[in-house]
Amino acid sequence: MMATTRPSARQPLADKMYEVLLGQFMDGLWSPGQSLNIGALSRELDVSQTPLREALARLEHTGLVRREALKGYRVAPLFTERELIKLMDARLVLEPAVVHEAARRTTPEFLDELKESIEELKRCAAAPRSASVRPYWAADERFHLRIAAQCDNPFLETAYRSLGGHVQRFRLFTELGASEAESPAREHTAVYEAMASGDAEGAAKKMRRHIENAKARALTDRQAVDGG
């Protein structure tokens, strides 16, 4: 008689802890390089250490945290200028190809979802920074992830998602100025309009320009940190 496989009792709790910790990152409660004490987190969140370790292991795969031998987990440091350049160069190779394929497969529902993410980005850009950072970056991520899902190429989508944690790390540790917050919404709109008109080549060019601009903004921020 075949044994019945029961779902892990830990897994839902580990998922919840992952979301809690990710939310804390997005709310700016953790600083680059800060030590993550599992015992203290266990007491603070009133859970055992096992689901926390599982959640931190998942966060390690995103690049947001790092595990050091004999020391435990630590929040990943700020990107170096070289790392930022390499990350953005990877996006410049990948994302125009992803959006080109997605633009050939648009549907009204897909375009509505993109438009909704852009409207949310605009609302967040106009809101006070303290209230808007988390939903702002969530809307930004939703735009790029939705395009990756629409490209109908699992290899391209997986390649983009493999960069996703590093892009998230870049987002979370980037200062969000008012003018900088407005620029991505305009750039997303340009990509959307090209896709809505069925212009795959134009959408790829607009996405490339968006990533180039994001790269320039990121390097300016990085240099400001070094100068400070």
From TrEMBL:
Ranges where the HTH gntR-type domain occurs: 11-78
Keyword 4Fe-4S: no
Keyword annotations: DNA-binding, Transcription, Transcription regulation
PROSITE patterns: HTH_GNTR
A molecular-function term among this protein's GO annotations: DNA binding
Name of the protein: Putative HTH-type transcriptional repressor CsiR
Annotated organism of origin: Streptomyces aurantiacus JA 4570
